[in-house]
């Protein structure tokens, strides 16, 4: 994959992103429950896009949300939405270059995994940003089959196939204690806890 192509791709889609967003509230609730997004938590939202999950975190009365995305245009939209909320910080950078000011209770990668080159590198890197007892989740609000179909015409410079959930869980096991593995007709999620 090519980082510059990924940035260009998401910059191009940014303005119409929210209009095309399809949400399954029940699935999103399950994903966030499984990652222990709760009152008082410090949350890192990786590949946050336009900030589609930030209202869900705030509704759960989290302490803080740090939202990171590689697309400047996506980040600009997210920052505008939450400019008056002191609990939300939006950072435009590559997550592998992001240096956090603190560790997190919850790290969420939602609808984004196929745009990362290496599952292992991503899980290893993010696990280092978790507090002890913290939760990492990689999830999609649709089935694996639907995600693969959705990316059918997208360049290999921008995305790759979503791995089987069991394969991703094997990667998680190297760095975390696996707590959730779900791959069904509605959703895809792997989560782990830092012991």
Task: Outline the structure in words.
- This protein has 195 residues and is an alpha/beta fold.
- The protein is 33% helix and 24% strand.
- It contains seven helices and seven strands; from the N terminus they run H-H-E-H-E-H-E-E-H-E-H-H-E-E.
- It has helices at 3-17, 25-34, 54-59, 72-81, 119-127, 144-150, 165-172; strands at 42-46, 64-69, 88-92, 104-110, 130-140, 177-183, 188-193.
- Strands 3-2-1-4-5-7-6 form a seven-stranded mixed beta sheet, with helices on both faces.
- The longest helix is centred in the first third of the chain and has 15 residues, at 3-17.
- The termini are far apart.
List keywords for this structure.
195 residues; 33% helix; 7-stranded mixed sheet; alpha/beta
The low-confidence runs, each spanning 5 or more residues with pLDDT under 50, are none
Helix content: 25-40%
Biggest beta-sheet profile:
7 strands, mixed
- Rg result: 15 Å
What can be said about this structure in brief?
With 195 residues, the chain is α/β, with parallel strands linked by helices. The chain is built from seven helices and seven strands. The model has no long low-confidence stretch (mean pLDDT 94).
């Amino acid at each position: 994959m090519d980082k510059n192509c990924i940035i260009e791709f998401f910059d191009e889609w940014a303005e119409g992103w929210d209009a095309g967003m399809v949400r399954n509230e029940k699935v999103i609730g399950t994903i966030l429950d499984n990652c222990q997004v709760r009152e008082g938590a410090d949350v890192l939202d990786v590949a946050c896009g336009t900030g589609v999950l930030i209202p869900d975190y705030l509704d759960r009365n989290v302490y803080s949300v740090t939202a990171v995305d590689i697309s400047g245009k996506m980040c600009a939209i997210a920052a505008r939405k939450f400019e008056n909320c002191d609990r939300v910080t939006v950072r435009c950078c590559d997550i592998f270059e992001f240096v956090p000011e603190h560790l997190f209770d919850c790290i969420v990668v939602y609808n984004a995994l196929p745009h990362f080159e290496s599952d292992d590198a991503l899980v290893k890197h993010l696990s280092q940003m978790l507090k002890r007892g913290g939760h990492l989740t990689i999830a999609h609000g649709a089935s694996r089959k639907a995600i693969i179909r959705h990316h059918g015409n997208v360049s290999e410079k921008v995305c790759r196939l979503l791995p089987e959930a069991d394969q991703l869980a094997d990667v998680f096991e190297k760095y975390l204690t696996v707590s959730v593995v779900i791959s069904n007709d509605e959703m895809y999620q792997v989560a782990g806890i830092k012991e």
